[in-house]
Each structure stands twice: as C-alpha cells, then as structure tokens.
Specification:
This protein is of the alpha+beta class and 142 residues long. It is built from seven helices and six strands; from the N terminus they run E-H-E-H-H-E-H-H-E-E-E-H-H.
C-alpha cells in the first residue's frame, strides 16, 4: 500500500476571471500577488501552470515531490510548508476546495483577479499606483 501523501489538483477557469483577471503565468501575478501570497504560493501556481496539460481534471500529485520541486523540503506533515502554502492559496482565493466523486480536490484558478482594496493598501505606494493602472488598462478605461 502506497502511503505517499498526495493531493488531487486541477486547473479551473471561470468566465469572470477570464474577463477581469490575469493568467497565473503573467507578470501581474509576479508584481502584485507575490507580495501578498508569498513566494511558495506563486511557485505552486507557476509549477502547475507549466504543466497545465496534465491538470484539466483532478490529478494526484505527490506532495513531497511538489514541495521539493519548489524548494520547500520534503515534509508533508499537517503544518508543513507545503500544507500552509496550499491553505494560503485557498484563503486568498487563488484556489478552492471542491469535491469530485466524494474526494477533495484543490482547484487552482488559471486567472487571478485584481487585488482587493485592503490588500492593495498594504502594497508600497509605487505598486499601488501601478496596480491601479493595470486594472484600469484591463478594463479598457483611459
């Protein structure tokens, strides 16, 4: 019996995120979401994005292998860095937990929305201005 800790992951796209968001591989994520989510969350998003063809439906991933691939070590205990990272993705609405065939699946969004106002307020002033410009440009407002 294989006791390797695994998680089922998949990528999901929603119409509102396609219209109002940025792809997880974009520089917007690096520039504005990185200071909020942290490097390990962005690394997971990028890792899955680079393998998007593997994740159109729920796919089992070895958590120790994923953790090592993004530089978090091999621990998969309840409060391990990889566990905290996956929890943080859900907490900040970059992912959600779904149930498919009675099993939990971590659904990672292919696009992230603009930062909510309280999170923008935490950014340095220069990034706040740039975030506003990026959101305005995406909306097509001059």
């Amino acid at each position: 019996m294989d006791t390797t800790p695994q998680a089922s992951l998949r990528l999901i796209t929603t119409a509102d995120r396609l219209e109002r968001g940025w792809p997880i591989g974009s520089s917007f994520i690096e520039e504005f979401w990185l200071p909020v989510l942290g490097p390990s969350c962005v690394a997971v998003l990028r890792w899955v994005d680079r393998r998007a063809d593997r994740f159109p439906r729920a796919t089992a991933v070895d958590l120790a292998e994923l953790a090592q691939a993004i530089g978090l070590g091999a621990s998969t205990s309840r409060h391990s860095p990889i566990g905290r990272t996956l929890d943080r993705l859900v907490r900040f609405n970059a992912a959600r937990i779904d149930t498919i065939d009675d099993a939990p699946v971590l659904s990672l969004y292919t696009h992230l929305l603009p930062l909510p106002a309280p999170l923008v307020a935490r950014l340095p002033c220069r990034l706040q201005v740039e975030h506003r410009r990026a959101v305005t440009a995406l909306a097509g407002v001059a």
